[in-house]
Amino acid sequence: MVRAIGRVKSNFGHRILIVECDAAKLPRLYSKVLDKRWKPVGKLIDIFGNVTSPYAAVLTDIEEPSRLIGERLFIK
Known about the structure:
Elements: E1 3-12, E2 16-21, E3 32-34, E4 40-49, E5 54-60, E6 72-75
Antiparallel strand pairs: 1-2, 1-6, 2-5, 3-4, 3-6, 4-5
């Protein structure tokens, strides 16, 4: 089952994306993350921040993660 986790807000370093999540639909840690074309992006490694507006950190496998800023990501 594929479901949305949120929008990419920024990147951290060369391999980590920061995603703003919906508090009602928190993803599971170490889930595979996909872009809007269902191509693999990486793995969800951490959930942090406020309980009402959490963020997720995604460790990417792609060369230019900054191109995903503003895009919705999904988990599998």
